[in-house]
Design brief:
Blueprint: H1 2-23, E1 36-39, E2 44-47, E3 55-61, H2 66-81, E4 87-93, H3 107-116, E5 122-125, H4 132-135, E6 142-146, E7 152-157, H5 165-176
Amino acid sequence: MIAGVVMTAVFGVALAIKLRPQLNPVEIGSRAPTFHATDLRAKSPASLDTYRDKVVLLNIWATWCPPCRAEMPSMEKLHKKLAGTDFRIAAVSVDGDAFYSQEQAGPKDILAFANGLGLTFDILHDLICENRPAYDIFGVPESYLIDRHGVIVKRVIGATNWEDPVNEMLIRRLLSEQ
């Protein structure tokens, strides 16, 4: 009897761990999971804590992705337009992860790509795509707008024009909130 109860408990815990991503989906209004990456310019670890009390556009991208390349200039224009505020862009490259592509772009390739486009916002790298399960990432590009309190306000799957007035107004509203 005791063995049966223990086996049931072990099975229940294992099932809960396996189903956890479906039980706590990443959606608008939910707390943003922490992410881990390397800031390629600063050569230091970066996480959601790095951007505490900031409004953050977390963008998941790759150098081999044409829609990512298409959306980056609008992100740069928005970054420049909102310079001097508490708005930050954390662009996390998933180059090198076999889940997305067999192409292997390393940190130097990623920085060369970013510099070639004239990007001045934070360029991060998640080599092993540690963030994929936590953020339920479907593909690239994928973006999350996170408020000062770490809550996801907007999720975009695919490329978008971040300079669009609707996006800018939403970010400015989030910046005005304390």
